[in-house]
Amino acid sequence: VGMTLSTARPHVVRAMLEAICFQTKEVLDAMQHDSNLKLTTLRVDGGATANSLLMQMQADILGTPVLRPADQESTALGAALAAGLAVGVWDESFIFKPQHDDSSATTFAPTLTPEQVAPRYRRW
């Protein structure tokens, strides 16, 4: 596992954050391979996105910008849009319009090279 008596809480927390990022990389690599499409930006939402260190680590590990919207709970918006569609409040043309405004989003740009990330990913 790599833990010793000198392993402290910050080491464990960082390992946990890296694991989240590497798992995401694994899934996105498979999706890109299967679809023959290249990920140019990862849009994120949910509670974990409030952690700026995690978002920067994700950008570094993916080698792709990570975009965090000002409203980090897109799931609630999606549920509201689906409910409104189901009861006829709006039609599909409204649903399929972009519902995000990137002007207030935070973008985390990669700061590591693929050569810096590769050995860490292999060890994971």
UniProtKB/TrEMBL annotation:
Superkingdom of the source species: Eukaryota
Keywords: ATP-binding, Kinase, Nucleotide-binding, Transferase
One term under GO cellular component: mitochondrion
Domain Carbohydrate kinase FGGY C-terminal: 2-86
InterPro entries per UniProt: ATPase_NBD, FGGY_C
Organism, scientific name: Tetraselmis chuii
GO MF entries: ATP binding; glycerol kinase activity
Keyword Nucleus attached: no
Biological process, per Gene Ontology: glycerol metabolic process; glycerol-3-phosphate biosynthetic process; triglyceride metabolic process
Family the UniProt entry places it in: Belongs to the FGGY kinase family.
Name by which UniProt lists this protein: Carbohydrate kinase FGGY C-terminal domain-containing protein
Pfam families: FGGY_C
Transmembrane domains' residue ranges: none
